[in-house]
Amino acid sequence: MHPKEIQVGIDVGGTFTDAVLIEENVIFEKAKVATQADNVLGTVLQALEALKIYHKPVTRITVSTTLITNAILQQRLPQVDLLLFPGSGMSLNAFTWPVTYQVLKGELDYRGREISPPDDLEWRRLLNRYQESPKSKVAIVGKFSHRNDLHEHNLALFLHKHCPNLEMSLGHEWGQTNFYRRSLSTYLNLACAEIYQTFAQQLQQAVEQKGCSAQINVLKADGGIVPLQKLRPVESIFSGPAASVLGSLAQSEPGQSFVVVDIGGTTTDIGLILSGEPLLSAHGAQIGAFSTLVRTLAVRSIPYGGDSAILPEADDFKIAPYRLGPAYCLGGPTPTPTDAMRYLNLIPYGDRSKAEQGLLQLLPEKDRDSLHLQQLSENILMRLADSISQAVESLNKEWKREPAYKVWEVLHPHDDKNFHIWVSGGGAPGLAKALSRCLHIPVKIGDYPEVSNAIGAALARSTFSCTLHLDTFMNRYRIEETGLQGEWLGSRKPHKEVEGFLQEIAEKIAFDQGIHLKEVQIQPFDFFPIVKGYQTVGQIIRGSLIVPPGVRGRLVP
Is 432 helix (H, G, I), strand (E, B) or coil? Predict the structure, then answer.
């Protein structure tokens, strides 16, 4: 008999941190603690204490954390020097750079062939600078380094030889095209590394000190999990919205298509599931002013939630895109949509008399009676539902432009495209009817809306992607996701051997990342002939092996 799997999921939200303990797809414990924005580690440990995990043989703990998202948005990142090899043919001024950079000489062409070498004098000047500041952080990125890491690699070796304490990050490790996004991804990942490593070490030590030997994972923006020490820090941004999507998936019937709306205290997350699979974005994640190559689900967060401040405005009110604290009924400073839900008895928590006191502040003295309070509360919920509905409709148009959505449409021509809404989060019971009225489509709620994100974290599985680019004429290959580059020793016109080569590399990468490959999908290979002098002299080949986002099982009610 296989030992029972006991899994813990923790989702650190802007207002509350949710946690669940699941055994054999059944929830045995759940908890909700207030999030300490300046102490994410303490919040996670408090949630673990609330679950009483230290007396159980827990096999896996998965954390969805706002640590890196907060550090980026609050600009709490250390100084990083960004060194660029942009070559010719593009104007860096055409892009909006949220950070400063230095341009270096040296150029490769689009196939990775050297056009002009770097300038030795420039490198010596850099060396003088870093010998004066030996603990600097340096990100080095070349425009076509994803085709050939020659200049990045040589500069890193040169600097490391003379300044061994420098922390460096190289752009080819984000092995995709788009020089601008690759540069900012490299910069951010290095800038976040120290913050994340401190968090990871402290969390690991704290859990071990309690006698728990469970593997600790972190949820990524693409809905996959990775062991705590293997994560590239910037990949943990938007793990909250990913948890929202997976939590709804774990509570729904297999094969369904629906829109996920997770109503938190600070934000509302919106995502899409098509035939039981979360929709992945073809573009990298955008966080603040930074465009990145981080793989992410096609999700959006809007700055409205159950704790959004409601402010009086002439003879009306407005829902502000921020929170000033908890709901008035929970001891907060200002009325919120949560107070409207409590007054209408749509939620069981909070002091109803306090909710009434808070809402009365929004009414003129002559209208402070139960009838007007009822109307005000209903109007607040309709106003919030309308804001969410507009975001859903806007995002629906964006989803239809995603390549993965277009493929799904072709494969499912007869499926209903008017998807129902799956609502989760603490505000789900209070807003379900209002959302249904605004969108004119059915709205469903799971059995555990208040801890849905934690369920998603607990039941998330590993995602994996390994994309091979092979140029048999130049005898070079590269792996898009990791930046791995090497020499191709096979034939000029390979066929079957390419698939085996990709599988071999994928297994090594997965092992290094602590991932067990299951439910692998091999995408069809593309073969493009290279013709020279009327003869085929080689091929450019592209193919990929993936494990899509999903959950390890469905929750048993």
Answer: helix
> How many CB atoms are located within 10 Å of the residue 542 CB?
16
**SS3 call for 344:** coil
| Rg of the chain in Å (alpha carbons) | 26
pLDDT tens digits for range 106-119: 999 999 999 999 99
Strand partners, 170: 140
Written as six digits, the tokens of 532 are 């020279």
Query: Is 503 within the bounds of a domain?
Result: yes
Report how many helices (DSSP H) and strands (DSSP E) the chain contains, helices first.
13, 28
> What's the distance, CA 300 to chain centroid?
10
Q: Which amino acid is present at 208?
A: E
* Predicted pLDDT of residue 1: 45
Residue written as token pair 């929202």:
244
Burial 41-67 (b: 16+ CB within 10 A, else e): bebbbbbbebbebeebebebbbbbbbb
Strand pairing category for 290-291 and 443-445? unpaired
Task: Map residue 216 onto helix, strand or coil.
Answer: strand
Closest CA to 87 of 175, 148, 162: 148
Helix residue ranges per DSSP H, 400-519? 403-411, 428-439, 452-459, 496-512
Residue 529 within a domain: yes
Prediction pTM value: 0.91
Domain count, the chain: 1
Domain around 540: 464-547
pLDDT band with cut points at 50, 70 and 90 for residue 418: confident
User: pLDDT by residue (tens digit) across 72-97?
Assistant: 988 889 999 999 999 998 899 999 99
Q: What is the DSSP secondary-structure string of 355-393?
A: HHHHHHTTS-GGG-SHHHHHHHHHHHHHHHHHHHHHHHH
CA dist., res. 423 & res. 268, Å (int): 10
Closest CA to 61 of 5, 1, 14, 2: 5
